[in-house]
Amino acid sequence: MPDVLYAAAEPTRRRLLQLLASGPRTVSDLASHFPVTRSAISQHLGVLAEAGLVVNRKEGRRRIYSVDPSGMASLRSETDRFWSSELDQLVADAAALASTIRSNDS
Fold it and tell me: What pTM, to 2 d.p., does this model score?
């Protein structure tokens, strides 16, 4: 399965996820929000689908896309894990800097 962080990192794909967060949409509706072709949007949706972030169903000739809750939970888990360690390091760095400043002021 492709990396969910990689799939969601690209700006167009992030915007697609934001649009889909409000509910299912057709490819044509999604494409109307971008200055690229419907085909390009379909390719982006394919990447998101491979990563498990979106699912689609066919209604006649239309494809309706929606976010996949389990895929979004996986994305959130990945970002939480990343930010937890990064924020822990930031707090440690800030504490060390504050200690150094206090020592220099004495």
Answer: 0.75
